[in-house]
């Protein structure tokens, strides 16, 4: 690694709106630099996670070091491929801290979209060089000139700075490498200073412990060095350092300006904080600023399907949150579902992906309950202010066919199906991004669900006053469908305070499991009665009502997918 002086290093990221072709461009760059062999099978090589391959989207930023020869000089190009979906923009902002420039990829057909704008401003605020790349020029409907004009108008980047490519066919991709070398500055670092390394990502390996992705701002780190974590003040010995090429390749040393990985016997997931600074033992340095913590937007309860799996699930969640530090975790418990957690996610897709990764990577099986948003409650009976509907903030015309609208929305109105409705109403043309605008007062009520007068704790929700009736009715109906008849009548009620707003009734009935066994073998009857008794073990009693565990799951699940 010592062959690469700082002036021959470029650290850059590829950012774009979802599906505009970042991962495909990354594949071509890996091929062009000989990092991977050129074969037809190279599809989204950096999307390593199973969930990424199954869904065809990037959810994790990935690093690859490319070695490239240009005009007789050997360059080290560190490329970070980032996710495009708004739910994963936290990954993007962290990755940018290790970069001096970005390739801003824009689809030649779709033009500038919400995440193009959001990512541009992330890069712009971090004072990075931005190279606009117009991709998919091979498409029949491609209109690169129109996109060039949009870029000039919205980002104030001269249109002649745009590079037009087809990542799929490989057209003009060499110019992208050329631009990375010419237009992105080398990192501003000092190799003679003591080590200062930023942990910008980390993963947990069952056998090797924590693998930290590091960007070196100062100094050198070598295998065998003693390093200290600024966050925990614990000392470790470096067992392995190297570059991602794109798989781990040990190098013994990493120098300032370089990006790579480091393994130092951190066994506990709480030891490797993303945003932490590592320095050499007895050579303390001023820690790097680290990262703003992510703000969760959607909350959900998570419980093991079987309580005996609690500890395994706990460890799986800890390991996965190490790799995805934007998830917040608080312990929680529910009468029906037992001990569990309340998790905060950046969006619904993020929640689904996290859940799927737990299943795929840790073989965990979980129950996820209704996503809710946090409210601040002022406990007073008289102060009620009218709920706000969306308020338009501004409107900017990007070009003749495209307009950017800014609205203030109650978060609760957008977390469930707003995005899907927007997509279908606009035939897929509209795109959407959001940021937190703080708390607003609204007319909210706490709705209880009662079974024969007893409160079902796990079904308590906070809803808007105007929607309480319809939501309460829907929950009562769903619960009615999932409750078995019992020896007495069951009243299912939705209530706000002492006021009942919806009601369903399950008629009394005892299932006679022996009804069809006329005469015949007594052992068969015994078997049926035994099975009925076993089934009852899976019931939970609320007052005198026996509720099968999956009844809650059905109600909670349908609510969340509504
Ligand atoms: N026709 C055409 N299709 C392309 C081109 N580049 C990418 N695609 C296709 O566009 C789709 C999205 O490409 P990806 O590279 O996965 O996009 P991405 O931006 O990495 O997506 P996320 O990481 O999920 O945000 C894939 O089906 C690609 O095959 C191109 O130059 N031309």
Would you spell out the secondary-structure blueprint of this structure?
Layout: E1 9-16, H1 22-32, H2 50-55, E2 62-70, E3 73-81, H3 89-96, E4 101-107, H4 114-125, E5 129-135, H5 144-155, E6 163-164, H6 173-183, E7 196-205, E8 209-218, E9 220-222, E10 226-229, E11 235-237, E12 240-244, E13 248-250, E14 253-255, E15 259-263, E16 277-280, E17 298-304, H7 310-323, E18 328-334, E19 338-345, H8 348-362, E20 366-368, E21 391-399, E22 402-408, H9 411-414, H10 418-425, E23 444-451, E24 454-455, E25 461-464, H11 468-482, E26 490-496, E27 499-506, H12 522-537, E28 539-542, E29 545-548, H13 549-561
Parallel strand pairs: 1-3, 1-4, 4-5, 5-6
Antiparallel strand pairs: 2-3, 7-8, 7-16, 8-15, 9-14, 10-11, 10-16, 12-13, 12-15, 17-19, 17-20, 18-19, 21-22, 23-24, 23-25, 23-26, 26-27, 28-29
The structure holds guanosine-5'-triphosphate.
């Amino acid at each position: 690694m010592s062959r690469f002086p700082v002036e021959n290093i470029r650290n850059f990221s590829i950012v774009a709106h979802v599906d505009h072709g970042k991962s495909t461009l990354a594949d071509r760059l890996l091929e062009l630099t000989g990092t991977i062999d050129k074969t037809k099978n190279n599809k989204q090589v950096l999307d390593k996670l199973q969930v990424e391959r199954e869904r065809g989207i990037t959810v994790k930023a990935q690093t690859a070091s490319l070695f490239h020869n240009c005009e007789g000089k050997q360059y080290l190009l560190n490329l970070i491929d980032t996710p495009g979906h708004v739910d994963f923009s936290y990954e993007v902002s962290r990755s940018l801290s290790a970069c001096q420039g970005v390739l801003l990829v824009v689809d030649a057909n779709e033009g500038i979209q919400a995440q193009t704008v959001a990512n541009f401003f992330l890069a712009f605020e971090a004072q990075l060089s931005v190279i606009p790349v117009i991709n998919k020029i091979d498409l029949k409907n491609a209109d690169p000139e129109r996109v060039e004009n949009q870029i000039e108008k919205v980002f104030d980047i001269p249109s002649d700075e745009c590079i037009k490519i087809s990542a799929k066919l490989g057209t003009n991709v060499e110019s992208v490498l050329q631009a990375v070398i010419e237009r992105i500055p080398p990192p501003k670092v000092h190799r003679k200073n003591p080590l200062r390394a930023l942990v910008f990502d980390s993963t947990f390996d069952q056998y090797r412990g924590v693998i930290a992705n590091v960007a070196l701002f100062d100094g050198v780190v070598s295998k065998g060095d003693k390093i200290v974590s600024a966050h925990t003040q614990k000392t470790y010995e470096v067992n392995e350092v190297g570059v991602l090429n794109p798989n781990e390749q040990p190098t013994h040393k990493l120098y300032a300006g370089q990006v790579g990985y480091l393994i130092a016997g951190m066994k506990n997931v709480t030891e490797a904080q993303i945003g932490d600074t590592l320095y050499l033992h007895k050579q303390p340095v001023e820690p790097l600023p680290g990262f703003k913590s992510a703000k969760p937007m959607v909350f959900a309860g998570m419980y093991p399907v079987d309580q005996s799996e609690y500890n395994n699930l706990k460890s799986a969640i800890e390991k996965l949150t190490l790799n995805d530090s934007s998830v917040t975790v608080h312990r929680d418990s529910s009468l029906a579902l037992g001990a569990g957690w309340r998790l905060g996610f950046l969006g619904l897709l993020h929640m689904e992906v996290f859940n799927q990764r737990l299943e795929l990577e840790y073989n965990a099986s979980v129950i996820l309950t209704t996503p809710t948003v946090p409210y601040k409650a002022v406990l007073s009976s008289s102060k009620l202010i009218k709920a706000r509907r969306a308020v338009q903030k501004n409107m900017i015309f990007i070009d003749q066919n495209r307009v950017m609208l800014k609205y203030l929305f109650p978060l609760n109105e957008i977390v469930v199906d707003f995005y899907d409705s927007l997509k279908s109403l606009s035939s897929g043309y509209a795109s959407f991004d959001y940021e937190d605008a703080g708390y607003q007062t609204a007319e909210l009520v706490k709705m209880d669900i009662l079974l024969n007068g007893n409160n079902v704790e796990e079904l308590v929700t906070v809803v808007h006053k105007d929607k309480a009736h319809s939501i309460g009715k829907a929950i009562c109906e769903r619960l009615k469908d999932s409750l078995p008849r019992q020896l007495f009548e069951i009243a299912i009620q939705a209530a706000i305070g002492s006021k009942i707003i919806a009601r369903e009734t399950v008629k009394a009935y005892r299932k006679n499991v022996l009804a069809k066994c006329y005469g015949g073998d007594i052992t068969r009857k015994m078997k049926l009665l035994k099975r009925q008794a076993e089934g009852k073990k899976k019931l939970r009693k609320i007052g005198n009502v026996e509720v099968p565990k999956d009844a809650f799951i059905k109600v909670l699940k349908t609510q969340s997918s509504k």
